C-alpha cells in the first residue's frame, strides 16, 4: 500500500550481506568465517529465540503473569534490550520496521484472529462492530485531530511543532485506531464476556479500512498542501473508503473461495494441506496490499469464510497442524512486535518531546473514545436485542488500546512533508506505551471491580447444541410468521443457500455428506471421551472407570468409584481363619477377571514398525493404530450401551410405575418381600451369566432386550412385593457383587459387558467359581438395565452358584459391605425354614425344581441353613434400615 | 408493553395472513407462508399457536404466542416478583421450546419425541442408528432422575448456561 511504500525502506536485518573485498586466499582453508552470509536470517532467528525465551521466563512465575499482561512485560523487556543495544553499539539498532511489521508480523496475527473468529458471534454483532469500527474511528480521528489543532492554535504547544490542521488530522487518523494486536493481547487475559470481547476486537480488526483510507487521504492532502485540495478530493476520499473496505473484503472472499476449492482436491497430498491455508491467506494479504486495499480486512474475511469448508475438507491432522502453526506464528509475531516496540522507543533520534502535545493527545483520545462509545451505544441500543449497559461501555472505552499499527504508521510518515514527525513519533510511542502498559495493567482489576460479566468457558453439550438449533429454527419461523425479514430470516436464507450451492461446491463429497452440526458435536464429544479413555488406558481400573465415560455416568461412575472404595477398604485385616480361603478365591477371581480384561484390551502383537521414510506421507505408526483400535472399541461399546439403554427406555415407563409402587411399599416392613427378593435377585443373575458366557458383549443388547421384557413379565406375574424389591435389589445386587469379590468385581464391573471377549476362557469353565462371573454379570445388568433373566433355567443355575459364593464364609469375611449384601439372601433363609424357602418361590416350577436339585446336590445348599444363625444375628445387630441401599446410591453420586 | 405501532403492524400482518377474513387464522393460513414450509420445525411452531383442540386462533391468541419472543427489558427484570410471570420470561421462553418437543404433553421429552425432532432437524445423511445414538446421548446428558426422558426441570437445567433471553428473542417485538 501507499502508506507502506512512502516510508523509509529498511531491510529487516540491517545491511545486506556482502562479502568484503576479497583478499587473495592464503592457500587452502579449513574453515572460513562466513557471518556475512548468514547474518540476516541469523539475527531474525536470534531475536525470535530471545523473545520466546523471555516468554518462558515470564511464565515461570504465575503470580507475575496473572497481574501483568504479557504485552507489558515484553515492552519492558524490549526497553531493556534496546538500552543494552544502545549502550553497546552506541546507536539504536533493530527497530520495528514498518515494512517488516506490515509484511511479516501483522498477517499471522490477523489470519489467526480471522480464522478462529467465532463467526456466529461475530455476525450476530456485526452491526455494532461496524458502527464502532467505521463511525467510531471516524469520530475519533476527526475530534482528536481537531482538538489537537485547537490546542496548537491556542498556543499551548511548543512553537517547534510545525503542523497545520491537515497534519493534526493525519496524526489523529493514525492515533485513533484501536489496535488488534494490543486488544487481543490484553483481552485474551481478561476474559470478559464474549459479546464485549467480540465488539472491541471486531472493531479493532475492521477499523483498518477506515484507518488506511484516512491515513492515505490526509497524507496526500498534506503532501498536496492545503491550497491545492479541491472538493473533488474529498469526494474521492469518501469513494476510496468504500473501495478500500469493500475491495478488501472482496479479495478476502475470493481467496477464501479459492482456498476452499483447492482443499477439496488435496485428498492425495494431505501433507501440504496446511500449506495451502497459509499460502493463500498470505497471498490474499499481499494481493490486497498490492492494490492498496485493506489487507487486514482481506485476511480477516478470508479466514472467517474459508474456515467452515477448509475444516471439513482437510484431515484431522491437518486441522491440528493448521491450528497450532497459526497459533505459534501469531503468538511469536505478537511477542516480537511488543519487544521491538520497546526497543524502538529508546531511539531518541526520532524523538521530539512536547508535553502539551503528549498530554493533550492522551487526554483527547481517552475522552473522545469514551464520548464516542457512549453516543454510539445510545443509538445502537435502540436496535440491539440485548442492550450494552453502562459497565460494558466503560470497558469498551477503556479497552481501546493503541498499538504497533499506530507506531508503524507514524514511522512511515515522510519527515520532509510532515514537519512535526518527530513530535508525532514521540507522542505515539507514549500513547502506545500508556495504553498497553497502564490500561493493560489496570483493565483486569477494573473488570473485576465493575463485576463485568465474565465469559464462562464450558464444553459444548449435545443438549445445548441441539436446543440452540431448535431455537434458531423457531426464531426463523416466527420471523416468517410476523413477516419481518430480520436477522434470523437472513441467516436462514444464507444457510439454505450455503447448503444448496456453496457447500456442495466447496466441500468434498464425503465431507458434505457427513456434515451436520449436531452430529459433529456428538462426534467430537465421543472423540473427547475416547481420547480421555486412551489417555488413561493401560491402567485397568481407570479403564473400568471410563468404560462408559460419556454415559449418564451417574450409574457407571458411581458404581465403579464405590467399588474402588470397597477395594481399598475391603483389604482390611481379617482375623478369621477362613481368610486364607478367601484370599485364595479372591485372587483366583481376580485372575479370571484380569484375564478377561486383558483379553479385551490387550492388543495383539503387531507388525514391527517399518522404518520407512517418506516426505509426502506420514505413515500411521503403531501407537496411532492402537489408539484407533481403542477408539473403535470404545465407540462400539458405546453403541452397544446405547442400544441397551434404548431398549431399556422402551420399558422405562412401565418400570417407572412399578418403581413408584415399590417405593411406596418400601416404607412398609421389609421382611415380607424378602423371600421374593431372592427370586428376583437370583434370576437376575441369569442374563448376566448368559451374556457372560457367550460373552460377546456385543450380544448384550439383544439379550437385554428380551430380558427387560421378561422383567416386566415377571414383575407382573409376581406380586407388588417384588416390585418393592425392584429398587432395593438394584443396589444390593451391586453390593453383592462388590462384596462377593471385592477387588475383581470392581475391575470387571463396568467393562465386563464390553471388554470381556466373546470366548470364555477354558479355565474359567473349569474353575469352580464360575458363579463369580454370574455375580459380575448381575452387577452389570443391574447397572445398565435392571434386568431379569431370559432363560430361567440357566438363570437359576447361575443364581445358585452365585448364592454359594455369597454364602460362602470367605465372602462374609471380606468386610461390612459384604455382609450387608449377603444379608437379604441369608436373612430370607433365616426367617423361613430352609425347606419352605424353595416352595415359596413363585418361579416356574421347573426352575424351582432344578434349583432344588441343585441345592441338594451341591454342598453349599446344605451350608446355607447353617449360616443362618450367623447372618440373622448380624442382621439384627446391624439393623439396617430398608432404605439403606438407596442412601448408598446417593452417597455414591455424591462421591462422584 | 408492546408499542402501538407494533400492534398495528402485527395486526396488518395478521389480516394479510387471514385469507378467510373471519378474524381468525387457521392452520392453512400459516402453512401458506412459503418459508415456513421449508422450516424443519415449521409444523410444530404452527401448532404452538393453537391451543388444545382448537383449529383457529384469533389476534389475541396470535399475539400471546408471539409475546414469548419479546426481549426481556431491563426494567422488567426488576419488576415486582408477585405479579404473574410475563410471557417473555426465561422460563416461559424455555417452556415454549419444550412444548415443541413434548408432543404428548406429559411434561417429558421421551426418546421417541426427541428422535422425531432430531429427524426433522438433521439432514438425511445421518443414519437412523446415528440419530438414535445422538438421542440417547442427549437424554443421558440431561436425564437426572433416571427415567430416560427429559423433564422440563432437566431441560431448564441443561440449558442454564445458554443465554436463552437472547437466543429466544426477536428484535421486532421489542
Helix-strand layout with pairing:
The complex is a heterodimer of chains A (896) and B (174).
Chain A lengths: L1 H4 L29 H24 L3 H6 L2 H20 L8 H18 L3 H6 L1 H28 L11 H11 L4 H11 L3 H31 L6 H33 L9 H18 L4 H19 L2 H29 L10 H27 L8 H9 L5 H9 L8 H30 L11 H20 L5 H20 L2 H5 L3 H20 L3 H6 L8 H17 L8 H23 L20 H45 L7 H21 L5 H18 L2 H21 L1 H8 L2 H4 L6 H5 L3 H15 L7 H16 L1 H5 L2 H16 L2 H6 L5 H13 L1 H20 L5 H12 L1
Chain B lengths: L3 H14 L6 E3 H5 L2 H4 L4 H8 L6 E3 H8 L7 H4 L12 H12 L6 E2 L1 H11 L6 H15 L7 E2 H7 L5 H4 L7
Antiparallel strand pairs in B: 1-2, 3-4
Helix pairs in contact in B: 4-7, 8-9
Commentary on this structure:
- The complex is a heterodimer of chains A (896) and B (174).
- Chain A has helices at residues 2-5, 35-58, 62-67, 70-89, 98-115, 119-124, 126-153, 165-175, 180-190, 194-224, 231-263, 273-290, 295-313, 316-344, 355-381, 390-398, 404-412, 421-450, 462-481, 487-506, 509-513, 517-536, 540-545, 554-570, 579-601, 622-666, 674-694, 700-717, 720-740, 742-749, 752-755, 762-766, 770-784, 792-807, 809-813, 816-831, 834-839, 845-857, 859-878, 884-895.
- Chain A is mostly helical.
- Among the domains of chain A are: 98-450, Na+/H+ antiporter like fold (Up-down Bundle); 464-532, no CATH class.
- In chain A, helix 17 (404-412) runs antiparallel to helix 18.
- Residues 1-20, 538-584, 649-764, 766-791 and 804-896 of chain A have low confidence and may be disordered.
- With 174 residues, chain B is mainly α.
- Chain B folds into two domains: 2-67, EF-hand (Recoverin, domain 1), CATH 1.10.238.10; 89-164, Recoverin, domain 1 (Orthogonal Bundle), CATH 1.10.238.10.
- In chain B, the strands form two sheets. In chain B, strands 1-2 form a two-stranded antiparallel sheet. In chain B, strands 3-4 form a two-stranded antiparallel sheet.
- The N and C termini of chain B lie close together (9 Å).
- At the A-B interface, helix 19, helix 20, helix 22 and helix 26 of A face helix 1, helix 7, helix 8, helix 9 and helix 11 of B.
- Chain B: It comes from Odontophorus gujanensis (marbled wood quail).
- Chain B: Keywords: Calcium, Cell membrane, Cytoplasm, Lipoprotein, Membrane, Metal-binding, Myristate, Nucleus, Phosphoprotein, Protein transport, Repeat, Transport.
Amino acid at each position: 500500500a501507499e502508506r507502506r511504500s512512502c516510508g523509509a525502506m529498511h531491510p529487516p536485518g540491517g545491511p545486506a550481506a556482502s562479502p568484503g573485498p576479497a583478499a587473495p586466499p592464503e592457500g587452502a582453508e579449513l574453515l572460513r568465517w562466513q557471518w556475512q552470509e548468514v547474518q540476516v536470517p541469523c539475527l531474525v532467528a536470534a531475536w525470535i529465540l530471545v523473545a520466546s525465551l523471555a516468554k518462558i521466563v515470564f511464565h515461570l512465575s504465575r503470580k507475575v503473569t496473572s497481574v501483568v499482561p504479557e504485552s507489558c512485560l515484553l515492552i519492558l523487556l524490549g526497553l531493556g534490550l534496546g538500552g543494552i543495544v544502545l549502550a553497546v553499539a552506541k546507536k539504536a539498532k533493530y527497530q520495528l520496521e514498518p515494512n517488516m511489521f506490515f509484511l511479516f508480523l501483522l498477517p499471522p496475527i490477523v489470519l489467526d484472529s480471522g480464522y478462529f473468529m467465532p463467526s456466529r458471534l461475530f455476525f450476530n454483532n456485526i452491526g455494532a462492530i461496524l458502527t464502532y469500527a467505521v463511525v467510531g474511528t471516524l469520530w475519533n480521528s476527526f475530534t482528536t485531530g481537531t482538538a489537537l489543532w485547537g490546542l496548537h492554535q491556542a498556543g499551548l504547544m511548543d512553537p517547534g511543532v510545525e503542523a497545520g490542521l491537515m497534519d493534526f488530522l493525519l496524526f489523529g487518523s493514525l492515533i485513533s485506531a484501536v489496535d488488534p494486536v494490543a486488544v487481543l493481547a490484553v483481552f485474551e487475559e481478561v476474559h470478559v464476556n464474549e459479546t464485549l470481547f467480540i465488539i472491541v476486537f471486531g472493531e479493532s480488526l475492521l477499523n483498518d479500512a477506515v484507518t488506511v483510507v484516512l491515513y492515505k487521504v490526509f497524507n496526500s492532502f498534506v503532501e498536496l498542501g492545503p491550497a491545492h485540495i479541491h472538493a473533488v478530493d474529498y469526494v474521492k476520499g469518501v469513494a476510496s473508503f468504500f473501495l478500500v473496505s469493500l475491495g478488501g473484503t472482496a479479495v478476502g472472499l475470493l481467496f477464501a473461495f479459492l482456498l476452499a476449492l483447492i482443499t477439496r482436491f488435496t485428498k492425495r497430498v494431505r501433507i501440504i494441506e496446511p500449506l495451502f491455508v497459509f499460502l493463500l491467506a498470505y497471498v490474499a494479504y499481499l494481493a490486497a496490499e498490492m492494490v492498496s486495499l485493506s489487507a487486514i480486512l482481506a485476511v480477516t474475511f478470508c479466514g472467517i469464510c474459508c474456515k467452515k469448508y477448509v475444516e471439513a475438507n482437510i484431515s484431522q491432522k491437518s486441522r491440528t497442524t493448521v491450528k497450532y502453526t497459526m497459533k505459534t506464528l501469531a503468538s511469536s509475531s505478537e511477542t516480537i512486535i511488543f519487544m521491538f516496540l520497546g526497543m524502538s522507543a529508546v531511539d531518541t533520534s526520532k524523538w521530539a518531546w512536547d508535553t502539551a502535545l503528549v498530554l493533550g493527545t492522551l487526554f483527547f483520545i481517552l475522552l473522545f473514545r469514551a464520548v464516542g462509545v457512549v453516543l454510539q451505544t445510545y443509538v445502537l441500543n435502540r436496535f440491539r436485542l440485548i442492550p450494552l449497559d453502562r459497565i460494558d461501555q466503560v470497558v469498551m472505552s477503556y479497552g481501546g488500546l493503541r498499538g504497533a499499527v499506530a507506531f508503524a504508521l507514524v514511522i512511515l510518515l515522510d519527515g520532509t512533508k510532515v514537519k512535526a514527525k518527530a513530535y508525532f513519533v514521540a507522542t505515539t510511542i507514549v500513547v502506545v506505551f500508556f495504553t498497553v502498559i497502564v490500561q493493560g495493567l489496570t483493565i483486569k482489576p477494573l473488570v473485576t471491580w465493575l463485576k463485568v460479566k465474565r465469559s464462562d468457558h464450558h464444553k459444548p453439550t449435545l443438549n445445548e447444541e441441539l436446543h440452540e438449533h431448535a431455537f434458531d429454527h423457531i426464531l426463523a419461523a416466527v420471523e416468517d410468521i410476523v413477516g419481518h425479514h430480520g436477522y434470523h430470516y437472513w441467516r436462514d436464507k444464507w444457510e439454505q443457500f450455503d447448503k444448496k450451492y456453496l457447500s456442495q461446491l466447496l466441500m468434498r463429497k464425503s465431507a458434505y455428506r457427513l456434515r451436520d452440526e449436531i452430529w459433529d458435536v456428538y462426534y467430537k464429544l465421543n472423540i473427547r471421551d475416547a481420547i480421555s479413555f486412551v489417555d488413561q488406558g493401560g491402567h485397568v481400573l481407570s479403564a473400568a472407570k471410563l468404560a462408559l465415560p460419556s454415559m449418564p455416568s451417574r450409574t457407571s461412575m458411581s458404581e465403579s468409584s464405590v467399588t474402588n472404595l470397597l477395594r481399598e477398604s475391603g483389604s482390611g485385616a481379617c482375623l478369621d481363619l477362613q481368610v486364607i480361603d478367601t484370599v485364595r478365591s479372591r485372587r483366583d477371581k481376580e485372575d479370571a477377571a484380569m484375564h478377561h480384561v486383558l483379553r479385551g484390551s490387550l492388543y495383539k502383537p503387531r507388525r514391527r514398525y517399518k522404518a520407512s521414510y517418506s516426505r509426502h506421507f506420514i505413515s500411521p505408526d503403531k501407537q496411532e493404530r492402537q489408539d484407533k483400535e481403542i477408539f473403535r472399541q470404545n465407540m462400539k461399546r458405546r453403541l452397544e450401551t446405547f442400544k441397551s439403554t434404548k431398549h431399556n427406555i422402551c420399558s422405562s415407563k412401565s418400570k417407572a410405575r412399578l418403581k413408584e409402587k415399590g417405593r411406596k411399599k418400601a416404607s412398609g416392613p421389609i421382611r415380607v418381600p424378602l423371600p421374593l427378593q431372592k427370586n428376583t435377585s437370583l434370576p437376575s443373575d441369569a442374563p448376566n451369566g448368559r451374556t457372560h458366557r457367550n460373552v460377546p458383549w456385543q450380544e448384550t443388547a439383544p439379550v437385554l432386550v428380551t430380558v427387560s421384557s421378561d422383567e416386566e413379565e415377571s414383575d407382573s406375574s409376581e406380586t407388588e412385593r417384588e416390585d418393592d424389591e425392584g429398587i432395593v435389589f438394584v443396589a444390593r445386587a451391586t453390593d453383592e457383587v462388590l462384596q462377593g469379590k471385592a477387588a475383581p468385581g470392581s475391575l470387571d464391573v463396568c467393562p465386563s459387558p464390553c471388554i470381556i471377549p466373546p470366548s470364555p476362557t477354558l479355565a474359567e469353565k473349569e474353575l469352580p467359581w464360575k458363579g463369580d462371573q454370574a455375580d459380575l454379570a448381575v452387577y452389570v445388568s443391574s447397572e445398565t438395565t435392571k434386568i431379569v433373566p431370559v432363560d430361567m433355567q440357566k438363570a437359576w443355575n447361575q443364581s445358585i452358584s452365585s448364592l454359594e459364593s455369597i454364602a460362602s464364609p470367605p465372602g462374609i469375611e471380606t468386610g461390612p459391605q459384604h455382609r450387608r449384601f449377603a444379608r437379604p439372601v441369608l436373612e430370607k433363609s433365616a426367617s423361613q425354614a430352609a425347606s419352605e424357602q424353595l416352595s415359596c418361590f413363585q418361579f416356574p416350577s421347573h426352575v424351582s425344581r432344578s434349583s432344588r436339585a441343585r441345592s441338594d446336590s451341591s454342598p453349599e445348599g446344605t451350608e446355607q441353613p447353617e449360616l443362618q444363625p450367623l447372618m440373622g444375628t448380624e442382621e439384627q445387630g446391624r439393623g439396617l434400615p430398608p432404605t439403606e441401599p438407596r442412601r448408598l446410591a446417593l452417597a455414591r453420586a455424591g462421591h462422584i | 408493553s408492546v408499542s402501538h405501532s407494533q400492534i398495528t403492524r402485527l395486526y396488518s400482518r395478521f389480516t394479510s395472513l387471514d385469507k378467510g377474513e373471519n378474524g381468525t387464522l387457521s392452520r392453512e393460513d400459516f402453512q401458506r407462508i412459503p418459508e415456513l414450509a421449508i422450516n424443519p420445525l415449521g409444523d410444530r411452531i404452527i401448532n404452538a399457536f393453537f391451543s388444545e383442540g382448537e383449529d383457529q386462533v384469533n389476534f389475541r391468541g396470535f399475539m400471546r404466542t408471539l409475546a414469548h419472543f419479546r426481549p426481556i427489558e431491563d426494567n422488567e427484570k426488576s419488576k415486582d416478583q408477585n405479579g404473574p410471570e410475563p410471557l417473555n420470561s426465561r422460563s416461559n421462553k424455555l417452556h415454549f421450546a419444550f412444548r415443541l418437543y413434548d408432543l404428548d404433553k406429559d411434561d417429558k421429552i421421551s426418546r421417541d419425541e426427541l428422535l422425531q425432532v432430531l429427524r426433522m432437524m438433521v439432514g438425511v445423511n445421518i443414519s437412523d442408528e446415528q440419530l438414535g445414538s445422538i438421542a440417547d446421548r442427549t437424554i443421558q446428558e440431561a436425564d437426572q432422575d433416571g427415567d430416560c426422558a427429559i423433564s422440563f426441570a432437566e431441560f431448564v437445567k441443561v440449558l442454564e448456561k445458554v443465554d436463552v433471553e437472547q437466543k429466544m428473542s426477536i428484535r421486532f417485538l421489542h
